[in-house]
């Protein structure tokens, strides 16, 4: 009780601090921008791009082109070889190792400054929840964070690991006694072995806060229920806060609430190796699930944001704007410059503003994760929203899904979008279910509507994936557990061709 009492006092202080930059968004971003340029003037990157001549955002755009990891790789290699003052002053404290596409593994620098903001953002998200709801009970019980191993590779000059593992080294001392699993269990690399150990440790504890990517938390809940033959809410009667990030929770919500046996408050986070960008600061109990409040964009946390409309992104000279010029409801590619030394960096995520007073966003997908095999420009937000709309209020439960185009159908058939769905509870009529989703897609996407109306595509088809089919796939590619997640859709069939269907 003492912890929760002091947490409420601290939460009110943090809320006041956050409100200062929330109420001065443009000024806050200008301050971040000037600070970044000033501190990086004497780095190799700063000298190569004439930072000493940058006095405005216009100057910045002229000298710094938008880049991805491939364009940054040479600078990263210099850091790995022991050079200092390359992308940011000194050397990074860590490299966060992430999966790459064309370049194999990516090594994202994390500096002392950027890590301080990562930790501060996570803390703020919880404290704002306390300030806004008055609920601080979770600090008096146990909290679990399902994450990657904190074991770091120290064989090189800069320590290397997964972001969630690096963050595990920065848990505040006042939370250490509450935090689970144990350090030893967290260090287990094999996800299934680790999950069994986590259940053994936590099943007898007073768990109040549970955090992780929804798909992996769902696995944890399923195993708990199987072991105890009880709902998670009965095993942990004081569990009342779920913290998540990485994917849209809505496709999982109904199944998760069924596993828990009650509704619990939730906080959505938007962290990445490149920085902590946003967190939910309202509507924690999801009373109006159709209203998308979005997450508060962190404008005072060492990151300068730029935005390019997704439709324009692949043009030769796309228009780059700051928060001053963004509009609600437009799909933007998120571009970052950070105090870890990323400059006009395309993280690959797309976002949409739900509000500009204050600036709140939802994640709509990945700029490389879309379907446009026929010019339809379908994005993750659309497939997730369509499925949620049709499933809501029914007994249908879905564990996981992904979508891919079928461009080479059997002779005589039109092409179509193929939805691969692992059902917990199937619809009575799968064809009628598919037609309803298809109509929801047409209502959202005029390009998709035109293709069906013009007999270029036929109605989408659903292929049922066998139980645990997505887990088996992730295991087969070495990505079971941790921060890994299934893409909601792709413009090719690389994933779906490896899924086992019924």
Describe this structure in words.
- This protein has 502 residues and is α/β, with parallel strands linked by helices.
- Among the domains are: 114-285, Rossmann fold, CATH 3.40.50; 370-498, GMP Synthetase, Chain A, domain 3, CATH 3.30.300.
- Helix content is 36%, strand content 22%.
- It is built from 17 helices and 19 strands.
- It has helices spanning 2-22, 25-39, 44-48, 57-63, 69-80, 112-133, 163-167, 173-176, 183-186, 191-202, 214-228, 232-235, 250-260, 380-391, 430-444, 446-453, 469-476, and strands at residues 94-98, 106-110, 142-145, 159-161, 179-180, 207-211, 241-245, 265-272, 275-279, 295-297, 303-309, 331-338, 345-356, 359-366, 370-371, 378-379, 397-406, 416-425, 461-464.
- Strands 5-3-6-7-8-9-10-14-13-12-11 form an 11-stranded mixed beta sheet.
- Helix 1 packs across helix 6 (112-133), helix 14 packs across helix 15 and helix 15 crosses helix 16 (446-453).
- It is globular and about 65 Å long.
- The mean pLDDT is 90.
List keywords for this structure.
Rossmann fold, GMP Synthetase, Chain A, domain 3, single chain, alpha/beta, 502 residues, globular, 19 strands
DSSP helix count?
17
Low-confidence residue ranges: none
CATH topology of the domain at 114-285, what is it called?
Rossmann fold
Which CATH C-level class of the domain at 114-285 is it?
Alpha Beta
**Biggest β-sheet strands, sense, barrel:** 11 strands, mixed
Would you tell me the structural class of the helices and strands? alpha/beta
The whole-number mean of residue pLDDT values reads 90
């Amino acid at each position: 009780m003492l912890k929760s009492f002091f947490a409420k006092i601290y939460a009110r202080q943090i809320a006041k601090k956050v409100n200062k930059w929330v109420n001065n968004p443009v000024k806050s971003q200008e301050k971040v921008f000037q600070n970044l340029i000033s501190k990086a003037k004497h780095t190799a990157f700063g000298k190569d791009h004439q930072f000493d001549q940058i006095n405005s955002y216009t100057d910045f755009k002229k000298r710094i082109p938008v880049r991805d990891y491939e364009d940054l790789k040479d600078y990263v290699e210099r850091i790995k070889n022991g050079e200092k003052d390359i992308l940011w002053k000194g050397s990074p404290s860590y490299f966060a190792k992430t999966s790459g596409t064309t370049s194999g593994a990516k090594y994202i620098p994390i500096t002392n400054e950027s890590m301080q903001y990562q930790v501060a953002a996570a803390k703020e998200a919880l404290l704002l929840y306390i300030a806004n709801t008055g609920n601080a009970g979770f600090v008096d019980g146990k909290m679990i964070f399902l994450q990657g191993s904190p074991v770091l590779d120290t064989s090189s000059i800069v320590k290397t690991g997964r972001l969630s593992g690096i963050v595990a080294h920065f848990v505040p001392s006042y939370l250490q006694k509450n935090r689970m699993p144990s350090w030893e269990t967290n260090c287990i690399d094999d996800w299934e072995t680790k999950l069994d150990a986590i259940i053994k440790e936590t099943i007898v504890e007073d768990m109040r806060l549970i955090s992780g990517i929804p798909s992996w938390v769902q696995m944890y809940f399923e195993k708990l229920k199987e072991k105890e033959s009880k709902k998670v809410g009965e095993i942990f009667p004081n569990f009342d806060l779920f913290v998540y990030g990485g994917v849209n929770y809505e496709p999982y919500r109904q199944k998760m609430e069924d596993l828990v046996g009650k509704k619990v408050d939730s906080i959505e986070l938007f962290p990445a190796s490149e920085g902590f960008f946003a967190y939910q600061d309202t509507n924690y109990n999801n009373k109006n699930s159709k209203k998308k409040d979005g997450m508060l964009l962190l404008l005072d946390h060492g990151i300068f944001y730029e935005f390019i409309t997704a439709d324009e992104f692949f043009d030769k000279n796309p228009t780059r704007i700051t928060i001053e010029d963004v509009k609600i409801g437009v799909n933007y590619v998120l571009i970052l410059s950070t105090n870890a030394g990323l400059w006009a960096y395309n993280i690959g995520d797309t976002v949409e503003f739900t509000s500009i007073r204050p600036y709140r966003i939802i994640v709509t997908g990945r700029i490389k994760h879309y379907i446009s095999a026929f010019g339809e420009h379908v994005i993750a937000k659309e497939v997730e929203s369509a499925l949620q709309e049709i499933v809501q209020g029914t007994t249908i439960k879905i564990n996981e899904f992904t979508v891919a185009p079928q461009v080479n159908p059997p002779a005589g058939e039109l092409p179509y979008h193929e939805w691969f769905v692992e059902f917990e509870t199937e619809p009575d009529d799968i064809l009628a279910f598919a037609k309803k989703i298809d109509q929801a897609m047409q209502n959202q996407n005029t390009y998709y509507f035109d293709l069906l109306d013009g007999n270029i595509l036929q109605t989408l088809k659903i292929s049922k994936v066998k139980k645990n089919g997505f887990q088996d796939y992730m295991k087969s590619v070495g990505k079971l557990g941790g921060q890994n997640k299934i893409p909601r859709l792709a413009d090719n069939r690389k994933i779906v061709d490896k899924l086992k269907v019924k």
